[in-house]
Structures are given as structure tokens and as C-alpha cells.
């Protein structure tokens, strides 16, 4: 579904991603871990098409297409969903309006008629239940005044509305209380289908108890320095990142 | 030691013209007005001679040049032409699907298509100011000319001297008017005209009323309007005024609104400028009793060479009052926005809360914004703040929308709309709020180059 | 409770001015009055070249066509410019052969002010140009600085020794046509400091000018010219005091700064001119034009001021951000008490691309004083990527004073981001209570809170000055808090 090959990227001249290769097949869930500042969010944002980083080298192929050539909205319509680490507040833009535009743009892209107002509201209601989001939130402006946890839940709600093929969830678990964590994880699992995939960025193995990953990667200093099965997350939880950093630096100096 | 002193008199040539017009036509002007209203004229013209037409050296007009309009030779300065009355019949305003008590003003005049004066539910009266001065003389004597007193803007006094028509609204104590009152100001003529009118609104205590004023131009001539509205809001009353301005690029609209509030009253003003060549709205809020509360809102969407200037003065004269100003603008093409806002807290006005915000978005390199929020505070137990920003649409927000599949164009529109909606959402009358939301959206999409029933193509 | 607070407020803000003494030093003065002849006389006394006299006369003729600016939020009594002495110089007691030796009385005066003129005694790391009335009496560490190629001397010496530099830069940032007081200063300025930091040099010590008005009926009109050549750095301090007198005295100075490519200048002022007495009698009129030109790319000029003195202050240290990526900063604490008036702020003019400016202004008003912030942020059409952030807060201590904010934002570029925020309030009762609850007296609590409030600015001052400024804040507000 997604193939990243030797991706290098810089922000303001500073190289952040230093050659990332990764393949996500349909139906797979990949966990992406790594210390603060290692480049996880940068990678996620590049995949979603945010134009803040300059891609220096490498290719990204998504469903056979060159992803890097597509504008952000087209990637979204093609089924890529980014759950933001810091969802932005947009005062004055109501959730309903916002989601209606998004859903209808997606439908138009697929050659479908826009949803009628009543059908749309019905869909909202269904999805709200699915992710157990407080229905009052949907009546407010996008993320405005939401608590940290509410914002994250709102991301999952939007994911449910847009039914992506590839979901990239950037620390969607941070800031959630225990129940919310379960709800978010359930939401992700409920939306899971054999043909959909996810990249889950997290610092905590806890989330991975709910969303069981097929592969775990560790990103360090702009490189994927370790890839293994689920057990890697548990090991990291116990031992921290020091040993990985040491290994990585050793490898680096060997080069 | 000889010192060269440059004599700077405000009393310039531009002003002379208006003084002459006054002198030559005083009889005509006074003819239909009551003696009481006429009794203000001499003093007003004297004030005008002293103050003149505001020029750039006037701090309040620092960024607005009135010359192109005030130097212009208009064909008609204070009287409607004959056919003008007939024209009024044809017009239906864009906002008329609104369920409201309507009045039409044509070129600043109160045409006969309206009843001279009529009574609405709850004992509310609306009608022509001249007509009303025959019946409500004691009320008019109590309020007329009182709230503009001492104002330092020459144009206010010019209006007092020259205006000979306008609307009168009387809301007796306890009256609650469910439907809003709508004044539709039409300007249409086959000649360039300058019009001035004068409105007076008296809201006695415990009353509630909403007033909507819609400004339209219907023909492409050069127009200048200089309007004054005085409003008295009695104890515990609730008063909202909403202006919707939709005039063409060759028209200048200058409004002066004075809202005087008594104890525990609530008043709001909302100036929504969708279109207009030169627009200057000055809104004066006087919090004249403890516990009074006022809100001053404004939204301006300008493009081409349009120029929109909002001047706001909130005067906290008594303790424990609250005020809030929110003005937002989107400036496209070569347009210019100006915001001049002032919070003035008098000595002794303890317990004041006063806030002011002005946010602007510039869409092009040729658009300009001048903003001057001011605080003048002479009491210490106060909470006052202001903020002003000039910037662009938030790129992070744009990306967030795009990442949900919304096109860049659409995302920009949504953000601008959201930006504007923060002002619109404060309109209490729901149908009007929805109507405004639509108009703003159309305006942002560029579909409102003319309003539906307008004959003028603003290109 | 309220009464008690008022009493304490009163105690805290009724402090005495420490520097109000007068030194009985024999002074050479010219007669009162202003005319072309007086200007010729000043110029002759200073043995100036012809071009400088010409400059003065041009300025004077221009000034005669001008009027006092009235736009500030100040009540300025009529100033009789013919009733001022435009030149006063302390007379050396005995002429010894050694020019390095200074009059012991003068030395005593500066010792008393805490400014020792002896290099051995001096606080390490600060070079001082000490100015009394119209002339510079001593510049310390001249030689040490000269070793790194730095020129630091009195303005008069600079005119004689470095006429080319002076001619090239004087009036290039503040032309004599700039404003009424700038024109006046350009006509009659007596002395001041001159400083040139050569290419690539980081000035090894703090440079400072100390201004002292001593003589009665005189005006002080000094000029400072500071040039930071490419990739240089300097931190400059300015302090000032004057005796207590019933008459007002006029101080109209000019400071010009030029920063070339990658140069950085930090200019700090602790202004403590005599503010007048509790009834508002006497005090200095401080009408000053300070402006820096960030001419080079990536240059930076940073103004920090702590304004506690003067009866009336009219002052807007500004930055012209001409070089691409240049930065301007303005950090200010202005305290007014009793009957003081201040109208102060800054101008940031963005001309170059990606220029940045920051404005932090903290006003504190007490007594019957009026304190206004006035600031202009102007972004010109070509200044793409310009950024400004302004934060202007006012604190009111007492219900008879005023605090005002007059920002002007003029933006002509759509990639610019300009943000202004301001708040006005009194000290929160809950804050005082919180301190009280922890055992801190109300008086100390207010001191703490005011200092905390001003901290962001005070922190920008060089260390020795920061301590001094903190004490000054406390003293200026003594007896005002409640
Ligand atoms: N807009 C930006 N400008 C400059 N540097 C940036 C920007 N965005 C990210 N960086 C830098 O890039 C590096 C990678 O950041 P990124 O946000 O991708 O880390 P992360 O792995 O997601 O960290 P965390 O676990 O804390 O979320 C960091 O050093 C960060 O400071
Ligand atoms: Mg991250």
C-alpha cells in the first residue's frame, strides 16, 4: 500500500529525516516509536503533504501512485488520514460545516452525489456513537476550547467519518484518560478492515495492548534504527532508548 | 525673535462651500422641520465653521482622506429630486424576506411610500422625524441633539445644521418588540448627490428592540452620505443595532452613531460592511449608568480600491460597566482598512471591564491596514485589555482542512468565513444572522459584486 | 483594610530623590537666550570647524519655523526658550600640566553619584564618559579601548580627532529636520559621547555615559553617536541625575546608532532625572530623540530603558530596520509617581525583508501621574516576512493616576504578521493576599509584585544596572502602593 524509499527531508535547511525506508502492506498495522525529536511527526506530516519540510531525496509510493506529487487534499481523498499530534483550533468554523465539506469532497472525488443534510446528520450521529464522542462537541467550532483529550477523540471521530485506507495516528493516545484510551483504540479497531492499514506513532506500549501492531519501528535521529515484532515495544518500555541510541551511534561511526 | 508661524485653520475652502450652501438654503432646509430642531442649526454651523471637514491632521481621520468626496461638486445637497420619490416604490431590499417592520429612506428622505408615522405592537411608534416632532415634541426636546453635544467631528455638526429628514422611533417603557425594525436606506439618482439624514431612537426603560439599517445604492452616480443617529437606551433596556452596508465603489458612506445608555441597560452595535467605495462608521457608546453593558462589533470585507474606516469610542462614565469591542476585516486587492478604537475610563468608574480586539487579514501586497486601538484610563480598579493583529490566514489551519480532503480554495474560504463568523454570530435575530452568514459567504466567493436587486455593477 | 492599604501605598511611593544635591563648582556660563550669535558663541567656545557651525545654523533656522509638537498626551507648560542658558561648563580649579588630572570637586561629585572617575577604583569592565552640564569632564579607559581599535571619547574630541566619521554619520539617522527638539538640539548641542566599534570587534567592556545637570537655569543638549561596524558588538549604558530645583530644566538630547552588517548594539538607559517634588514643582523636561538604524543585514539594535525620573518624559527610542533580517527590540519600564507625566514608547519601521521587532512595555503609574505608551509599528510594502510582537501592560497604583496606550499599526505587506496586546489593571488583591498568607507584608508584596511585573525588562539590563534599577523602582514607588 505504502512504500517509502530512502526518504530524506530538511526543515529550514536542517536535515531531519536522513534516509527512511518503510513498507506498509494492506491490512498491516505498524507502530512507530522513538525518542522526542527523532522525526516521527515530521515523517507523518510529509506523508500527509504538509509543505513545511523540503524533501531532499527518496520516493514515496502509495497505491501505485507517486504520493509526493499530490497536494494534501488529494492524499486525503485517496484515503490517507493524519491524526494530528496537536490538532489545531479553528475558531468560527463549525464542526458540522467542516465535516460536511470534507465528506462531500471525498464523495465527489469518488463520483458520488453529496449527502443530503439529513443523511449527513445521520452519519454524524452514527459515527459519534461509534467513537463515543460527546455530541455537544460536534456543535462547536473545530477543536476550539476542546480539552487535550477531547481533541484527540475528535481526531478519531473524523477518521470514522472519512473511512481512510491508511491512517497515520500521531500520538493519538497522549493526553487521554484510561477510558478514552480504550474508546480511541476500540474506534481504531472497529474501523479496521482487511484492506486498510495504519501507522501508529506512540511513546507507550499501553496503546499497543489495544491496537496490536504487526511491526514495530524505532526512529532515532531521522533513521529507522530498529524494526521488529510486537515484543520490541515491550522491551523499549522496560529498557528505554539508551541501548538503541548507543547501537545506532556505533553503527553510525562504523559507516 | 521672529518666528515664522504657519497659520493652520481648519476652516478651509472645502468647508466654505458647505457654509455657503447652508446660508443660501437655510429656509428650504428649515421648512419641514420643527422649530426645536431648527433651533440647533445656527449653533451647529458655527461649530462646523470652527471644526471644518476633518483633514489628515485630525488624529481621528489620520488614515482617511475625505477630499475626493467633499471636494466634489454634487448636483444636489439636501433635497431629493422629483422622480426620486417614484423610484423608491420599486425597490425591494435583499434583506426584506426578513420578517420586520420596514421603513424606506430615499436619498436621506422619508418618502410617502411609508406611513408618516405608525404604531406597532406594544405602543412602539416609527415614522418620520419631522412628523414625530409634531406629536412627540416633549420627547424630542428631551433627547434631540443631546448625545452629539460636544463632539469634535465637524461632520456631525454639519449634519445637525443641514439634515432635514430621517427616522424617529419611540419605544415606551416595558415594550418588547419581537420583530426587528428595518430601515432601508436607498440612494438612487441620475445626478451626483450628497445626502444627510438624522435619526432619533428613544428606548424607554425595560424595553427591548432590534434595529436593522441596510444601506444600498441603486444607480452608479457618485454619492456621499453623512448620517447621524442618536439613540437613548433607558434603564434595564435591551437595544441592538445592526448596519449592513452594501454600496457601490463610487459611493461614500459616513455614519455617526451615538448610543447613550442608562443604568443596567444592554446595547450592541454591529457594523457589517460588505461593499462600498469609502465607508466611515463612527460609533460612540456612552455608558451613563451603573451596570450598563455594551458591545461594539464590526466586520469589513473590502477589495478593489475600497476604503473602510471604523472609529469606536466607548466611554465608561459610571462604575461597574462592561464593554466589549470586536472588529474584524479581510482586505483584498488594493483596499485599505482602518480601525480606530478607544476605551476611555473616567475617574471614578471603578469596577470597569473593557475589552477590545481588532484582527485583520491582508490577502494581497497592495492591501493595507492601519489600526490604532487605544486605552485611556483614569481609574485603577479596572480590567482592560486590547489586542490587534494584522496577518494572513493560518497556514496550519489551512493544512488541517486540506488534510481532510478539502481543496485549498475551499479551505481558504472556510477560514475566512470562520474568521468573519466570529462577528456575525453575535447577531441575536436568527433569520438575520443566517442571512448575513450567506451574504458574507457570497461576498467572500466574489458572488456579491452586486446585491440581488441592485442595478449597479460593481466591477 | 482599604485604608491600611492606602497608607502603605502612600508610604511606599513617597520616597525621596537621592541625587538631588548641588555641587558648588565654579562654572563658566554664557548669558541666557537663543540666537544665531549664541550658536556662533557655543561653536567658537568649542573651537569647531566651519561645517559644524553651518550645520548648527541650518538647524536653528529650521527650528525657528517649527512649533512644539502637541500630539503627545502631556500637559507641557509654556517653555521660554530665551530664558535658558545654552552653555555651562565646570571651570577647572587649577590648570596643571597633566590633562588626565581632574578637578577634585568634580571627582567628588561623581563619587557621590556612585560613578568613580578613577580607573583603578572603577567597577571593572565599564568605561565611562562623564558629562556635567554642557561638557564631558572625563572619559575613562580611552587608551585600553583604543588598543582594540575602539574609539570612545567625548563628542567634542571626536569632532577634532575624527571629523570624517562625525561628518559622515552625524544627522544621518536623526536629521535636524526630524522634530522640534531634534532641531533645537542640532542647533545648540554642547557635548556628548562618540563611539566607533571597528569591524569584527566585540567591545570588551560596557561603555557608558553618565549625564549630570548641575548648574541652574541651564538646558542640557547632548548628542550621542554610536557606530557599530560590520560584525561588531557593543553594550552601551546611559545614566542621568540632576539636583532638586523648583524650576523646570530642559534636557533635549539626540542619540543616533548605526549598525552595519551582522553588528549588534545594546543600548540601556536608566533615566533618573529629578522628577519634581510631591506637588509637581520643578523637575526635568526630558524630550529626547533616540533612533537606531539597522543598516546592515542581520544587524540588531536593542533598546532597554528604565524610566523613573523627569517631570515630563517625551521619548520614543526607535529602530529603522533597513537591512534584511535585521532585528529591533524595545524593552521599557516607565514609572510615574506624584505629578510626573510620561509619553513614551517606540517606533519600529520595517523596511528590509524578514525583519523582526519585539516591543515589551511596562507602565506603572502612581500618585497623580499620567503614563502613556505610544508606539508605531510600520511595515512597508517591500518588507516581506516582517514580524512584530508588542506587549504593553499598565499597572495602576491608586485611583488618581492614569494609564494610557496608543499603539499605531500600519501594515502594507500581506506576508507580515503584526500582533499587539495590551492590558491595564491594578495589582490583584488575590496576589497580595497570597503573599500575605505566606507571611509577606503588603508593602513587600507590592514591591515583589511590581518587580516581578517589570522583571522581563529589568532582566535585559546588564547586571550592575539591573540591581540599581530594581532599587530605583522601589524608591520611585515608595509611598504609593495600597
Ligand atoms: N517547523 C519546524 N522548524 C524547525 N524545526 C522543526 C520544525 N518542526 C520540527 N522541527 C525539528 O525537527 C525535529 C523532529 O521533530 P518531530 O516533531 O518530527 O519529532 P518527533 O519525533 O515527533 O518528537 P515527539 O516525540 O516529541 O513528538 C526536532 O528536532 C524538531 O525540533
Ligand atoms: Mg511528534
Residue runs with pLDDT of under 50 for 5 or more positions of chain B:
1-10, 451-459
- N/C terminus separation of chain B: 59 Å
Q: State the strand order across the main sheet of chain A.
A: 6-9-10-3-11-12
Helix content of chain A: 25-40%
Order of helices and strands of chain B: HHHHHEEEHHHEEEEEEEEEEEEEEEEHHH
Biggest interface between chains: B-C, 43 and 42 residues
> What is the mean predicted local confidence, pLDDT of chain A?
88
Question: What is the domain total for the residues of chain B?
Answer: 1
Element string of chain A (H = helix, E = strand): EEEHEEHEEHHEHEHEHEEHH
Cα-to-Cα separation, first versus last residue of chain A: 31 Å
Please identify the oligomeric state.
Answer: heterotrimer
Q: Can you count the helices of chain A?
A: 9
| CATH top level class name of chain A | Alpha Beta
Described by strand count, sense and barrel closure, the largest sheet of chain B is: 10 strands, mixed
Question: What's the total number of strands of chain B?
Answer: 19
Give the CATH superfamily of chain A: P-loop containing nucleotide triphosphate hydrolases
Features:
heterotrimer, A: 255 residues, Rossmann fold, 6-stranded mixed beta sheet, 9 helices, 39% helix, 27% strand, B: 459 residues, alpha/beta, 10-stranded mixed beta sheet, 19 strands, 24% helix, globular, disordered N terminus, binds adenosine-5'-triphosphate, binds magnesium ion
Task: Describe what you observe in this structure.
The complex is a heterotrimer of chains A (255), B (459) and C (482). Chain A is of the alpha/beta class. Chain A has a single domain, classed as 3-Layer(aba) Sandwich (Rossmann fold), CATH 3.40.50.300. In chain A, strand 1 and strand 2 form a beta hairpin. In chain A, helix 5 packs parallel to helix 6. Chain A is globular, with a radius of gyration of 18 Å. In chain A, 44% of the residues are buried. The mean pLDDT of chain A is 88. The longest helix of chain B is centred in the N-terminal third of the chain and has 19 residues. The N and C termini of chain B lie far apart (59 Å). Helix content of chain B is 24%, strand content 37%. Chain B has 11 helices and 19 strands. Chain B has one domain. The N terminus and C terminus of chain B are likely disordered. Chain B is of the alpha/beta class and 459 residues long. With 482 residues, chain C is α/β, with parallel strands linked by helices. Chain C has one domain. In chain C, strands 5, 6, 8, 10, 11, 13, 15, 16, 18, 20 and 22 form an 11-stranded mixed β-sheet that branches. A 10-stranded mixed β-sheet of chain C has the order 4-3-7-9-12-14-17-19-21-23. In chain C, strands 1-2 form a two-stranded antiparallel ribbon. About 1% of the residues of chain C have low confidence. Chains A and B meet through helix 2, strand 7, helix 3 and strand 8 of A and helix 9 and helix 10 of B. Strand 19 of chain B pairs antiparallel with strand 23 of chain C, so a sheet runs across the interface. The complex binds adenosine-5'-triphosphate and magnesium ion. The site of adenosine-5'-triphosphate has 13 residues of chain A, from helix 1.
Amino acid at each position: 500500500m505504502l512504500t517509502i524509499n530512502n526518504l530524506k527531508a530538511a526543515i529550514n535547511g536542517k536535515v531531519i529525516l536522513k534516509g527512511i525506508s518503510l513498507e506498509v502492506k494492506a491490512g498491516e498495522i505498524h507502530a512507530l516509536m522513538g525518542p522526542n525529536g527523532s522525526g516521527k511527526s515530521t515523517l507523518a506530516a510529509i506523508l500527509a503533504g504538509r509543505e513545511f519540510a523540503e524533501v531532499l531525496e527518496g520516493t514515496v509510493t502509495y497505491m501505485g501512485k507517486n504520493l509526493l506529487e499530490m497536494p494534501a487534499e488529494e492524499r486525503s481523498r485517496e484515503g490517507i488520514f493524519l491524526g494530528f499530534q496537536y490538532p489545531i483550533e479553528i475558531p468560527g468554523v463549525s464542526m458540522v460545516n467542516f465535516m460536511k465539506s470534507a465528506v462531500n469532497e471525498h464523495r465527489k472525488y469518488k463520483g458520488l452525489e453529496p449527502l443530503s443534510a439529513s443523511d449527513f446528520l445521520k452519519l454524524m450521529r452514527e459515527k459519534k456513537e461509534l467513537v463515543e464522542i460527546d455530541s455537544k462537541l460536534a456543535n462547536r467550532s473545530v477543536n476550539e476550547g476542546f480539552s487535550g483529550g477531547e481533541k484527540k477523540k475528535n481526531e478519531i471521530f473524523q477518521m470514522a467519518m472519512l473511512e481512510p485506507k491508511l491512517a497515520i495516528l500521531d500520538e493519538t493516545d497522549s493526553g487521554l484518560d484510561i477510558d478514552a484510551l480504550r474508546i480511541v483504540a476500540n474506534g481504531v479497531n472497529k474501523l479496521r478492515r482487511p484492506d486498510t492499514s495504519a501507522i501508529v506513532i506512540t511513546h507507550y506500549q499501553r496503546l499497543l495492548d489495544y491496537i496490536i501492531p504487526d511491526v514495530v519501528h524505532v526512529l532515532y535521529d531521522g533513521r529507522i534504527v530498529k524494526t521488529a515484532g510486537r515484543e520490541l515495544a515491550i522491551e523499549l518500555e522496560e529498557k528505554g532508548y539508551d541501548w538503541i541510541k548507543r547501537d545506532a551511534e556505533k553503527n553510525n561511526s562504523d559507516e | 525673535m521672529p518666528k515664522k508661524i504657519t497659520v493652520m485653520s481648519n476652516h478651509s475652502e472645502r468647508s466654505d462651500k458647505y457654509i455657503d450652501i447652508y446660508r443660501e438654503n437655510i429656509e428650504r432646509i428649515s421648512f419641514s422641520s420643527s422649530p426645536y430642531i431648527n433651533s440647533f442649526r445656527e449653533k451647529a454651523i458655527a461649530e462646523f465653521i470652527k471644526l471644518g471637514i476633518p483633514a489628515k491632521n485630525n488624529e481621528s481621520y489620520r488614515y482617511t482622506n475625505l477630499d475626493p468626496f467633499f471636494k466634489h461638486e454634487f448636483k444636489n445637497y439636501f433635497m431629493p429630486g422629483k422622480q426620486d420619490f417614484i423610484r423608491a416604490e420599486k425597490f425591494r431590499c435583499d434583506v426584506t424576506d426578513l420578517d420586520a417592520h420596514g421603513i424606506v429612506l430615499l436619498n436621506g428622505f422619508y418618502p410617502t411610500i411609508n406611513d408618516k408615522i405608525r404604531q406597532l405592537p406594544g405602543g412602539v411608534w416609527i415614522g418620520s422625524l419631522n412628523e414625530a416632532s409634531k406629536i412627540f415634541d416633549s420627547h424630542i426636546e428631551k433627547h434631540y441633539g443631546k448625545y452629539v453635544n460636544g463632539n469634535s467631528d465637524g461632520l456631525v455638526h454639519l449634519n445637525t445644521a443641514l439634515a432635514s429628514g430621517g427616522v424617529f422611533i419611540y419605544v415606551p417603557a416595558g415594550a418588547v418588540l419581537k420583530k426587528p425594525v428595518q430601515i432601508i436606506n436607498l440612494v438612487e439618482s441620475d445626478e451626483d448627490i450628497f445626502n444627510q439624514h438624522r435619526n432619533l431612537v428613544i428606548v424607554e426603560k425595560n424595553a427591548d428592540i432590534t434595529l436593522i439599517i441596510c444601506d444600498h445604492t441603486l444607480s452608479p452616480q457618485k454619492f456621499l452620505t453623512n448620517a447621524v443617529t442618536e439613540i437613548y437606551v433607558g434603564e434595564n433596556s435591551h437595544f441592538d443595532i445592526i448596519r449592513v452596508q452594501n454600496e457601490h465603489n463610487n459611493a461614500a458612506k459616513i455614519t455617526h452613531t451615538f448610543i447613550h445608555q442608562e443604568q443596567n441597560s444592554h446595547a450592541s452595535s454591529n457594523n457589517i460592511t460588505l461593499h462600498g467605495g469609502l465607508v466611515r462608521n463612527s460609533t460612540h457608546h456612552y455608558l451613563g449608568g451603573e451596570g450598563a453593558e455594551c458591545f461594539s462589533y464590526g466586520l469589513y470585507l473590502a477589495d478593489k480600491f475600497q476604503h473602510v474606516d471604523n472609529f469606536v469610542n466607548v466611554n465608561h462614565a459610571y462604575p461597574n460597566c462592561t464593554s466589549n469591542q470586536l472588529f474584524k476585516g479581510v482586505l483584498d486587492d488594493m483596499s485599505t482598512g482602518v480601525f480606530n478604537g478607544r476605551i476611555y475610563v473616567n475617574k471614578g468608574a471603578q469596577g470597569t471591564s473593557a475589552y477590545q480586539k481588532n484582527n485583520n487579514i491582508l490577502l494581497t501586497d497592495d492591501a493595507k491596514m492601519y489600526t490604532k486601538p487605544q486605552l485611556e484610563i483614569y481609574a485603577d480598579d479596572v480590567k482592560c485589555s486590547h489586542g490587534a493583529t494584522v496577518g494572513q490566514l493560518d497556514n496550519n489551519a489551512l493544512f488541517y482542512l486540506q488534510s481532510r480532503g478539502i481543496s485549498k480554495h475551499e479551505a481558504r474560504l472556510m477560514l475566512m468565513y470562520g474568521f468573519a463568523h466570529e462577528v456575525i454570530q453575535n447577531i441575536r435575530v436568527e433569520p438575520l444572522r443566517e442571512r448575513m452568514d450567506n451574504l458574507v459567504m457570497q461576498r467572500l466567493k466574489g458572488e456579491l459584486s452586486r446585491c440581488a436587486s441592485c442595478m449597479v455593477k460593481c466591477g | 483594610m482599604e485604608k491600611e492599604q492606602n497608607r502603605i501605598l502612600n508610604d511606599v511611593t513617597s520616597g525621596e530623590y537621592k541625587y538631588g544635591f548641588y555641587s558648588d563648582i565654579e562654572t563658566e556660563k554664557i548669558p541666557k537666550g537663543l540666537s544665531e550669535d549664541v550658536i556662533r558663541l557655543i561653536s567658537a567656545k568649542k573651537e569647531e570647524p566651519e561645517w559644524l557651525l553651518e550645520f548648527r545654523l541650518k538647524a536653528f533656522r529650521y527650528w525657528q519655523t517649527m512649533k512644539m509638537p502637541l500630539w503627545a498626551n502631556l500637559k507641557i507648560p509654556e517653555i521660554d526658550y530665551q530664558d535658558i542658558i545654552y552653555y555651562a561648563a565646570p571651570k577647572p580649579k587649577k590648570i596643571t600640566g597633566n590633562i588626565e588630572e581632574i578637578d577634585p570637586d568634580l571627582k567628588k561629585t561623581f563619587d557621590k553619584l556612585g560613578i568613580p572617575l578613577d580607573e583603578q577604583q572603577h567597577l571593572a569592565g565599564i568605561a565611562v564618559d562623564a558629562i556635567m552640564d554642557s561638557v564631558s569632564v572625563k572619559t575613562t579607559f580611552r587608551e585600553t579601548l583604543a588598543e582594540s581599535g575602539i574609539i570612545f571619547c567625548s563628542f567634542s574630541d571626536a569632532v577634532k580627532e575624527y571629523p570624517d566619521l562625525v561628518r559622515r554619520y552625524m544627522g544621518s539617522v536623526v536629521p535636524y529636520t526630524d522634530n522640534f527638539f531634534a532641531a533645537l538640539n542640532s542647533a545648540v548641542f554642547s557635548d556628548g559621547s562618540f563611539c566607533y566599534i571597528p569591524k569584527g570587534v566585540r567591545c570588551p567592556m560596557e561603555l557608558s555615559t553618565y549625564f549630570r545637570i548641575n548648574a541652574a537655569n541651564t538646558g542640557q543638549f547632548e548628542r550621542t553617536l554610536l557606530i557599530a561596524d560590520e560584525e561588531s558588538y557593543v553594550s552601551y549604558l546611559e545614566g542621568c541625575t540632576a539636583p532638586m530645583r523648583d524650576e523646570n530644566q530642559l534636557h533635549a538630547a539626540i542619540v543616533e546608532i548605526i549598525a552595519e552588517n551582522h553588528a549588534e548594539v545594546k543600548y540601556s538607559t536608566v533615566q533618573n532625572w529629578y522628577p519634581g517634588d510631591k506637588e509637581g514643582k520643578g523637575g526635568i523636561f526630558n524630550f529626547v530623540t533616540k533612533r537606531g538604524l539597522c543598516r546592515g543585514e542581520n544587524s540588531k539594535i536593542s533598546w532597554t530603558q528604565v524610566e523613573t525620573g523627569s517631570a515630563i518624559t517625551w521619548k520614543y527610542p526607535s529602530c529603522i530596520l533597513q537591512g534584511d533580517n535585521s532585528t529591533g527590540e524595545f524593552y521599557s519600564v516607565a514609572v510615574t509617581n506624584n505629578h510626573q507625566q510620561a509619553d513614551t514608547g517606540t517606533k519600529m519601521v520595517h523596511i528590509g525583508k524578514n525583519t523582526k521587532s519585539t516591543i515589551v512595555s511596562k507602565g506603572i503609574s502612581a500618585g497623580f501621574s499620567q503614563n502613556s505608551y505610544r508606539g508605531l509599528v510600520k511595515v512597508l510594502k517591500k518588507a516581506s516576512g516582517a514580524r512584530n510582537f508588542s506587549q504593553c501592560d499598565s499597572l495602576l497604583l491608586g485611583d488618581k493616576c492614569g494609564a494610557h496606550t496608543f499603539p499605531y499599526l500600519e501594515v502594507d505587506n500581506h506576508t507580515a504578521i503584526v500582533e499587539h496586546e495590551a492590558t491595564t489593571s491594578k495589582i490583584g488583591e488575590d496576589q497580595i493576599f497570597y503573599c500575605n498568607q505566606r507571611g509577606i507584608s503588603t508593602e513587600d508584596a507590592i514591591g515583589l509584585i511590581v518587580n516581578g511585573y517589570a522583571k522581563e525588562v529589568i532582566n535585559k539590563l546588564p547586571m550592575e544596572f539591573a540591581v540599581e534599577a530594581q532599587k530605583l523602582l522601589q524608591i520611585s514607588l515608595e509611598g504609593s502602593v495600597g
